[in-house]
Amino acid sequence: MNNARIAVVGAGKTGRGFIGRLLAEAGEPVRYIDKNAGLVRDMQEAGQFTVHFFGGKREDFVVDNFTVTTWEDADLTGIELILVAVGGTNLPDVGKALAERLPEDSSVRIITCENASHPSETVKKAMGRPDMPVSEATVFCTTIEAEGLDIRSENYPKLQCSAEQLQGYVPPVTGITPVDGFGNFLTRKLFTYNAASCIIAYLGWRKGYTSYGEAANDPEILAKLDANYAVTNRVLCRVFGYTEEDQAQFALLSREKFTNREIADTIERNAREPHRKLGPEERIIGPMKLIAEQGEDVSVLVETAAAMLLYDSDRETKWKELRAAHTDEELLESIAGLPENDPLSRRIVEKAAELRGRA
Fold this sequence. Notes:
By secondary structure, the protein is α/β, with parallel strands linked by helices. The chain has helices at residues 13-25, 37-46, 91-101, 119-127, 163-166, 182-206, 212-216, 219-240, 244-258, 267-271, 274-277, 285-293, 299-310, 317-325, 328-334, 343-358; strands spanning 6-9, 30-33, 49-53, 61-63, 66-69, 81-84, 109-113, 134-138, 143-145, 151-153, 159-162, 176-179. The longest helix has 25 residues, at 182-206.
């Protein structure tokens, strides 16, 4: 066992290509834990993997100072920080596994690295330890699998997390950055980055694209994307007090990321689980309500929500079942929290009917 003080739960794309790379850049050995015995075996045998950066932005980076085990052989001795890089649906299982292995008086800090809804609360509830310091981070860095264990990634330098939830603890890695007022920061990210991602994905699906980068560079979609960035920027500055320059730069980084054709991504991956993305405080309905409250134009988000109601994929079993069993109005009320008589609901339903007529 190496002398790691940081463990990473989840050795997938984010765990290896982003978090593992950040820790390796800081000279920190890593102790990986993953439930996939085959992946664990492959990593043990290889002893290293390489991160390749999109567009050759920098030289390849080799990560080799790590150990990796399944939960059965996991050892958290000497660990002060645990980074959890698994999908949202796996968080309860991780919480239970950690509860079995961490003593009641443990001083370890945990950071969830998953863009899910209230992931820290999910982990604490599963652990049965409401006072456990569990922070949340938001992942901006896109990573995709390359050959073998290698990863292709953006050259993104930071993992921003909630300073308040860390209760004064400062991670020993420069790239892990505690942020004060993280709730507002997360809202900013959700309404800027995630909303833009949905606009591209669902409007791109409507136009028959399968490549995310190609959809993002479609002139019509790009014009709508820019229009929504402009209104979102104004509203976020007005409501949260960001400077125009700062928010414009934040949005520009989002635009550059999504329109970069070298980031191999798909419409299907970005459009998955529309029932989750249509939540009342999520990436489309959340900013739509805020923008409408400010008297600004919500037409792009209305069209995106309408396209989401129409979205169809053989992989989306749950969504297909929901669509088959409910009207548009019922879906918007039960999932998005918009009553049938809500003006936004009526606009979305009308737009969905219009889009169906064009099919």
